[in-house]
């Protein structure tokens, strides 16, 4: 407005020189309006206005007005610091609600300033840093205004950044949707609060607020408590829910337990489990003193020393004589929840799911097997690895059993990995794990002729089977470790023990492994180093220094490398607490220790996207003298950034153009092939055509006789990863609640070592998590339950199995696949309706019905029904429906999660609206009989084969004929 | 007419009376009151609110500031002149479409030009000149200032001094006197450069003094560094100003070349 009327602010500036006060005031207030257009003119008079601001004779209002004016001029001049300090002088005249660039800019500046002051004050923890009270007042005014205006998220974000927990609490409690804001706040604190201590403070506050609510969201509380490592809190909540009369509450408790299990924090879970009070009928045990971490795991280890699922046994004994009906109910629920917390239930259900939904394509393996040269041991073992990864957790070892002759070509370490591969395949098969491996295990010191390689491999396999849930097997592994002096067996036992007691920080085990380390044998020492790290994962204990000292003493590079990785593992997730150790390692003379330092950085800051860590890593990536260290630094960037996948390519892209091949290697993570496979896992061809090309490219490399061995190996591994776990798993480093999955991260970190030691490839199986939605009822069984996936079925269906015409040469394979499927489609579109339907049925996975395959399983009938219901309606209008009905339990790939919807009028209602994972279902019609979906569990008759004799072999094959249960492979003889 | 306007106009009448009496103290006093009262009118610059009495208010305000300018000349206060003139200026420039032209406009603009000339602010003088319309330039008041400036620049100082006799307005006399002083400073500056020394008589004539006494006073006041001996004024001290520094060409060339070399290496 002023711009059109006046051509100059000179008049007003002249008026400032008048002697009369009211004239100055008049001039000031007019200039304040004119400043937006005439700041260049006014800027020459700034000293004059400043002197007005400092003039004591002026009254408060006028001085503030002068300050505001100066502040605006400085703002236009780009002097934000001066501008802010004068704006502070303007006091209440600086209107935070004004909608102008000036105010927005200065507010941002003020908040930045305030936040940096506050965090500096918090970090140095002395009171010397005084925050300007006026600055504080402005920020508070802003926060209050946000709260009043209903911009709670903004207020919360600012409050968190400024470390004003009081305001944060106010914002949350005053918001209209407390639950929503709380979950937003949890999300924010995980993704943006990079300081671990402060994040804990925030979470503690959140828990406090949560608990004040009339209907607390126990799911979120427990997640927070887990992060804070307060097992008592979780235990008391769970107990309260379990004791409730309402059945829904116990469902909720089960759901909480499943969610906690998903985060794979073994030590914490055990703690919670041990703190749950026993039923009152046994008062003597309910008052047992709360054991410390090490004790509790020790107890568990003793209890579960035998090979039966010890939790069931334990609780069964605890629930012996319930008198009171409510106590009885509680005891029953308690036994269930203990089962869940120990991980038994979820592992068992996962196993069932992976087994029944296994869609891995044996033909691919066959093709690979035929194409690799017999004498090329690298490719040979790569194929074995690929097989293990492909069938991870499915218990399907058909391929191995069908190819015993071929398998027996494996010698020495290849034999070790072949045996260990069984562990991957049977991953999570806790009950029968040991009996499955029995034929290969060391036979009580008598040296029953078994090769040390297969014995060591078997111990490693046991570790893989029991990874992170190893109470049952620990004792056995320890005994084996103690009773052997063969370094290969020690190697296997160390790895196995480390896996089984992941993160439990068990002192006794640690000592035993240390003894192995001190024998200074390269092979055993390397495994011992890694194993110590696994044992101490995330504890940040001072054992790391012990390990570091030994790493300096020993001569063996392998041991140093193992120890370096082990040290890195101990600081997992400790963030700042690990800084001293990292500093120590990264400054070391020895490149291998610096290399370990990179891993330490990667693990300590994994998934935090912490700027400091990134900066350090980038620095090492370009400046270290050792190529290994540089490569690892780039690789470590991936770990630090994994929660922020969009950012990673941007940071890494420059490095990928580096002239140094090692850096490029790191940027691509083990060569483009494997990395591509990790990206492409479980993306169907329909949703991304690149997958098809990629598969064909892999095939070409494998089949091409002239291709380099290394790239062949990469391609074989990649095709294994691509179809991992019977095409039902994916690599997932974050749980659904955005917690890091400790096992997965650790697994991947150790996996990335495979360059130096191939058997470590199997660690990738730790990073696999099933992509499934498994609905469970009160009895923890999966009832028949349908839900909707609101997307074209072809987008997420399993890749079509390769169909090989047996007579033709395998080289023509890719084209053959294409033509048949294309023809099938063409045919289908031409023919009449019925024919179409039949074609559908014939082509198997083309079928539009539920994704469960139903190979003669109990679910096949239901599938058939579903198909009959669905297909006629769909055929009429369009060739492909825009949705599909999935039946519990179903494969739900990550990209599909956003399409999953629960049906309105369904009998079951989920307790938590989660699109994947374990979901507890509330039964709305409890009187009706329930139909259960899957009841079959793999390998129920294996006990007979435990002897590993010829009789066992026969009985297993006969059992196979009866119920198609997978059996352990026949004990084969190595012809080395 | 509303009460405020009446009050202002009554006060203005009292001010004018005092002004005519040459009672500068009371007129300054009244003027200050008037200015404060004016801040109450929203129709004045920079707001230009469309109040019903806008025209009267603007007119009266302009009148007040015109008088203020003239008053400042009379009390020989250049700062006050500048201050009041700048406050008056929006009434001439921005309020041109709202008010009939003031008869005092050109004399006051001319006065301002003269002031700039006196203060030797030639750049601002020309800026002001550029803002004037061609009709304004025809006005004798403006023309007078323009001619003065031209003579001043040419060095025709005698013409400048003789112009004092032909002032278009009695208020100009004050500035013309000041201008004589400015001119004398200019001449003194030139003489310093042009001569090593001058006899007292020549210097007196050159600096347009009538008596030796005046010359000596001027020298002791403005140029104490000048020496007077043997009936002459010596300027040599001023001549001792440092000779033009030699340009370190060789060094510069070397530097530039090395920059170029390094640049080549970087690229």
From TrEMBL, chain A:
Gene Ontology molecular functions: enzyme regulator activity
Gene3D superfamilies the UniProt entry points to: Leucine-rich Repeat Variant
Ranges where the 26S proteasome regulatory subunit RPN2 C-terminal domain occurs: 771-932
Segments passing through the bilayer: 764-780
Source superkingdom: Eukaryota
One Pfam entry name: RPN2_N
Biased composition (Pro residues): 967-976
GO cellular component: nucleus; proteasome regulatory particle, base subcomplex; proteasome storage granule
Residue span of region Disordered: 280-307, 828-889, 933-976
Swiss-Prot/TrEMBL GO biological process terms: proteasome-mediated ubiquitin-dependent protein catabolic process; regulation of protein catabolic process
Ranges for domain 26S proteasome non-ATPase regulatory subunit 1/RPN2 N-terminal: 8-278
Role noted for this protein: Acts as a regulatory subunit of the 26S proteasome which is involved in the ATP-dependent degradation of ubiquitinated proteins.
PANTHER family assigned: 26S PROTEASOME NON-ATPASE REGULATORY SUBUNIT, 26S PROTEASOME NON-ATPASE REGULATORY SUBUNIT 1
Protein name as catalogued: 26S proteasome non-ATPase regulatory subunit 1 homolog
Annotated source species: Vicia faba (Broad bean)
Automatic annotation (TrEMBL), chain B:
Domain of life of the organism encoding this protein: Eukaryota
Family listed: Belongs to the proteasome subunit S14 family.
Keywords annotated in UniProt: Proteasome
GO cellular component: cytosol; nucleus; proteasome regulatory particle, lid subcomplex
GO BP terms in the entry: proteasome-mediated ubiquitin-dependent protein catabolic process
Name of the protein in its database record: PCI domain-containing protein
Lineage of the species this protein comes from: Eukaryota, Viridiplantae, Streptophyta, Embryophyta, Tracheophyta
Domain annotation PCI: ranges: 79-251
Xref: InterPro entries: 26S_Psome_Rpn12 (IPR006746), CSN8_PSD8_EIF3K (IPR033464), PCI_dom (IPR000717)
């Amino acid at each position: 407005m002023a711009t059109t009327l006046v051509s100059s602010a000179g008049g007003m500036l002249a008026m400032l020189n008048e002697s009369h006060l009211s004239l100055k005031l008049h001039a000031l207030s007019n200039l304040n309006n004119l400043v937006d257009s005439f700041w260049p003119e006014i800027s020459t008079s700034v000293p004059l206005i400043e002197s007005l601001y400092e003039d004591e004779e002026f009254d408060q209002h006028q001085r503030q007005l002068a300050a505001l004016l100066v502040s605006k001029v400085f703002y236009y001049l780009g002097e934000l610091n001066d501008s802010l300090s004068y704006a502070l002088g303007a006091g209440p005249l600086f209107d935070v609600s004004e909608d102008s660039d000036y105010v927005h800019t200065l507010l941002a500046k003020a908040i930045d300033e305030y936040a940096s002051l506050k965090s500096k004050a918090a970090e140095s923890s002395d009171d010397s840093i005084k925050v300007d009270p006026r600055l504080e007042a402005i920020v508070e005014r802003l926060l209050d205004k946000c709260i009043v205006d209903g911009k709670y998220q903004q207020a919360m974000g600012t409050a968190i950044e400024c470390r004003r927990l009081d305001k944060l609490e106010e914002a949350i409690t005053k918001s209209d949707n407390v639950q929503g804001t709380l979950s937003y706040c949890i999300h924010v604190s995980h993704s943006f609060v990079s300081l671990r201590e402060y994040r804990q403070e925030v979470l503690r506050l959140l828990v406090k607020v949560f608990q004040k609510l009339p209907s607390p969201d126990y799911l979120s509380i427990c997640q927070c408590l887990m992060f804070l490592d307060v097992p008592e809190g979780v235990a008391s909540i769970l107990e309260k829910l379990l004791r409730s009369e309402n059945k829904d509450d116990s469902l909720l408790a089960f759901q909480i337990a499943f969610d906690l299990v998903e985060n794979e924090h073994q030590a914490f879970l055990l703690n919670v489990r041990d703190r749950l009070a026993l039923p009152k009928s046994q008062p003597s045990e309910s008052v047992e003193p709360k054991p410390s971490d090490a004790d509790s795991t020790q107890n568990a280890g003793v209890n579960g020393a035998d090979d039966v699922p010890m939790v069931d046994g334990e609780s069964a004994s605890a629930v012996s004589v319930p008198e009171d009906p409510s106590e009885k109910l509680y005891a029953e629920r308690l036994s269930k929840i203990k089962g869940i917390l120990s991980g038994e239930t979820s592992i068992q259900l996962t196993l069932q799911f992976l087994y029944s939904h296994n869609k891995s394509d044996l033909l691919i393996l066959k093709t690979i097997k035929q194409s690799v040269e017999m004498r090329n041991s690298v490719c040979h073992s790569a194929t074995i690895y690929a097989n293990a990864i492909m069938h991870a957790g499915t218990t399907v070892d058909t391929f191995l059993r069908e190819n015993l002759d071929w398998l027996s070509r494996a010698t020495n370490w290849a034999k070790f990995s072949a045996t260990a591969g069984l562990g991957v395949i049977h991953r999570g098969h806790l009950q029968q794990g040991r009996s499955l491996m029995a034929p290969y295990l060391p036979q009580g010191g008598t040296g029953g002729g078994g090769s040390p390689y297969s014995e060591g491999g078997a111990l490693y396999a046991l570790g893989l089977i029991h990874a992170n849930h190893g109470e049952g097997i620990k004792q056995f592994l320890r005994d084996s470790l103690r009773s052997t002096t063969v370094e290969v067996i020690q190697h296997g036992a160390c790895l196995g023990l480390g896996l089984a007691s992941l993160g439990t920080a068990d002192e006794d085990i640690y000592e035993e492994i240390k003894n192995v380390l001190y024998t200074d044998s390269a092979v055993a020492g390397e495994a011992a180093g890694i194993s110590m790290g696994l044992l101490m994962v995330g504890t940040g204990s001072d054992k790391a220094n012990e390990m570091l000292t030994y790493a300096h003493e020993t001569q063996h590079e392998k041991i140093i490398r193992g120890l370096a990785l082990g040290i890195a593992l101990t600081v997992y997730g400790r963030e700042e607490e690990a800084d001293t150790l990292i500093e120590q390692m990264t400054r070391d003379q020895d490149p291998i220790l610096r290399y370990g330092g990179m891993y330490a950085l990667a693990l300590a800051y994994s998934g935090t996207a912490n700027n400091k860590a990134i900066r350090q890593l980038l620095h090492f990536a370009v400046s270290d003298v050792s190529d290994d260290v540089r490569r690892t630094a780039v690789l470590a960037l991936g770990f630090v950034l994994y929660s922020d996948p969009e950012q990673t390519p941007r940071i890494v892209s420059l490095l990928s153009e580096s002239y140094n091949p090692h850096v490029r290697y790191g940027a691509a993570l083990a060569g483009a092939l494997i990395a591509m496979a990790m990206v492409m896992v479980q993306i169907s061809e329909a949703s991304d055509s690149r997958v098809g090309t990629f598969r064909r490219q892999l095939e070409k490399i494998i089949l091409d006789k002239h291709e380099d061995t290394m790239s062949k190996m990469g391609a074989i591994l990649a095709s294994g990863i691509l179809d991992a776990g019977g095409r039902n798993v994916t690599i997932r480093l974050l749980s659904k609640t955005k917690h890091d999955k400790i096992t997965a991260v650790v697994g991947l970190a150790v996996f990335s070592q495979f360059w130096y030691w191939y058997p470590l490839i199997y660690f990738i199986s730790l990073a696999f998590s099933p992509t499934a939605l498994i609905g469970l009822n009160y009895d923890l069984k999966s009832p028949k339950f349908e839900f909707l996936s609101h997307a074209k079925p072809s987008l997420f269906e399993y890749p079509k199995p390769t169909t090989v015409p047996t007579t033709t040469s395998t080289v023509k394979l890719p084209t053959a696949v294409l033509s048949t499927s294309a023809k099938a489609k063409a045919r289908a579109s031409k023919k009449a309706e019925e024919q179409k339907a039949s074609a559908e049925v014939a082509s198997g996975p083309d079928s539009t019905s539920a994704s469960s395959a139903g190979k003669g399983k109990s679910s096949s009938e239901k599938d058939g029904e579903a198909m009959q219901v669905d297909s006629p309606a769909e055929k009429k209008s369009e060739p492909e429906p825009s949705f599909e009905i999935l039946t519990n339990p179903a494969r739900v790939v990550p990209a599909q999660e956003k399409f999953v919807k629960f049906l309105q009028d369904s009998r079951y209602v989920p307790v938590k609206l989660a699109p994947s994972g374990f979901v507890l279902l509330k039964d709305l019609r409890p009187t009706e009989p329930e139909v259960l979906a899957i009841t079959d569990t793999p390998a129920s008759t294996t006990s007979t084969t435990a002897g590993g004799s010829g009789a066992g072999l026969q009985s297993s094959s006969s059992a196979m004929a009866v119920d198609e249960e997978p059996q352990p492979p026949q004990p084969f003889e190595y012809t080395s | 007419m509303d009460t405020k306007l009446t009050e202002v106009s009554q006060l203005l009448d009292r001010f004018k009376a005092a002004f005519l009496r040459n009672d500068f103290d009371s007129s300054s006093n009244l003027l200050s009151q008037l200015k404060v009262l004016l801040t109450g009118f929203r129709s004045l610059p920079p707001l230009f609110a469309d109040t019903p009495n806008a025209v009267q208010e603007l007119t009266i305000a302009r009148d007040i500031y015109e008088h203020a300018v003239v008053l400042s000349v009379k009390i020989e206060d250049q700062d006050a002149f500048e201050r009041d003139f700048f406050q008056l200026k929006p009434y001439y420039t921005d309020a041109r479409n709202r008010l009939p032209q003031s008869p005092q406009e050109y004399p006051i603009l001319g006065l301002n030009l003269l002031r700039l000339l006196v203060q030797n602010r030639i750049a601002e003088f020309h800026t002001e000149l550029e803002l004037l319309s061609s009709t304004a330039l025809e006005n004798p008041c403006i023309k007078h200032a323009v001619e003065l400036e031209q003579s001043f620049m040419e060095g025709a100082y005698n013409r400048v001094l003789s112009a004092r006799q032909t002032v278009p307005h009695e208020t100009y006399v004050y500035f013309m006197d000041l201008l004589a002083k400015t001119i004398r400073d200019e001449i003194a500056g030139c003489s310093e450069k042009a001569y090593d020394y001058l006899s007292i008589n020549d210097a007196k004539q050159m600096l347009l003094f009538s008596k030796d006494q005046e010359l000596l006073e001027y020298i002791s006041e403005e140029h104490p560094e000048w020496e007077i001996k043997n009936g002459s004024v010596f300027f040599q001290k001023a001549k001792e100003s440092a000779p033009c520094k030699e340009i370190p060409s060789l060094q510069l060339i070397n530097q530039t070349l090395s920059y170029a070399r390094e640049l080549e290496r970087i690229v």
